[in-house]
Amino acid sequence: MSQQKTRQQGTLIQAFGLPTAIILVVSSIIGSGVYKKVAPMSAELQSPSLVLVVWLLAGIISLLGVLTTAEIAGMVPGSGGPFAYFKRIYGRTLAFYYGWSSFTAIQSASIASISYVFAHSLNAVLPLPRLSADIEKAYHIFGIFYPLENLGVKLAAVGLIVVLASINFRGVRQGGTVSKIIISAVIASLFVIIILGLSLATDGMSNVRTNASSYPPQSFSAGNFGFITAIFTAMLGAFWAYEGWITLGFMAGEIKNPTKNIPLSLIFGTLIVITIYLLVNFTYLYVLPMDEMIAVAQDTNKIAAVEVIRKLFGDGGVFLISLLIVVTTAGCTNTTIMAAARIYYAMAEQGMFFPKAAYIDHRFNTPGNALFYQAIVSSILVFSGSFDQLTDMLVFAQFIFYGAVAVGVFVMRRKEPDTPRPYRAIGYPVIPALYIMFCAYLVLNTVITRPRDAGIGLFLILIGTPFYLYWNRKWKRETAKEN
Predict the structure, then answer these.
(1) How many domains does the chain have?
(2) For 242-262, what is the mean pLDDT?
(3) How far apart are CA 109 and CA 313, in angstroms?
(4) CA–CA separation, 248 vs 94, rounded Å?
(5) Which end of the chain is more exposed for a tag (fewer CB within 10 A), N or C?
């Protein structure tokens, strides 16, 4: 690197304390899922009590993952999150595949899907233009992807990605401030929904106790195996709503006292989200009977939270809840964009990504190129698939690596027994082992029940192989020269 480039290279700064770190965890989790996923879960299970049980189980399992991963997060406090964990535990290869899958199938798909719901809600407030049905269907890829479908919505989603990437390029404090403002408004608004819904619904407890008229679903006919499969399939929706807790680790280099604050913020942030989700989804099911919730799931243009408010307040309330969803999804997209770009920065520093992604802008101390690359891929994914296709694919891919991080707790206990651990996994070895078994079953169940989504996820992960071979060979040559 030339002397001029060295002078222009900025550095990441430790800007966030514990309260802000907790807010970032909460804001990275609460996004579109809290408004939308209860409907497809209801269609899968057809029982309010089972839907609530799945929300609780998914929260508990996510907390097990947090309690397990927090040990590694405290040991490896550098930027990059699981990328840094995998490099320390397993070496460069698995670290690369995690980072690459985040770039193509996990974090970028998360940004795309949340921004898509943002645009969909914006469309309810301000109708966006779209092409005729003939033109939408005329252009497709393999008869699977229809990039011109809902073109106005997709362009609005891309616009959000570009705007938020630009905000985060301007500075990490600006991105953190946006998250603080938005998540505060969102949590307050969700509690307003809970209070009003529980106060105004007339047949609430009857709705919660009454299964769908078609209960039990056809999937239950396979006996216990069919019931378990249905539970795990419904959990894909719940896990999307809980997705995002691990993103704080991506920004460890910008967290004050990271070895202490990262584990604490992960635990407290996840507990806050579990509580909010149970209350909100109970309210949805309290207001809407199960048959009406299933009808919402069958209409891809409807959002469960919107229909709940419509039943309570009519179209005037729909306008307000749509605005809330617009704000919420913008906030979650912002946090994900801010955090995930740090993975590619960390990869590039290690010679495992496009070299320019390692550049930190000297004016704003942010990884501007990494933000730019991420915005491009996320925008492409907006045009590639539907919301549910994207979320099921990314949850499948993410849980492969969640399980690998949990295995890493056992590996590191043997590999580095004397390394200081500011936080030690609660319930070791039982809780980490249970979490590993769950991750394995969820991945297998997705391959069986959602083969297309699993296949797309695996394809996006494996296309990184030629890039890895090239970058790794280049890294070896440069290392040999230095030695």
Answers:
(1) 1
(2) 68
(3) 34
(4) 20
(5) C
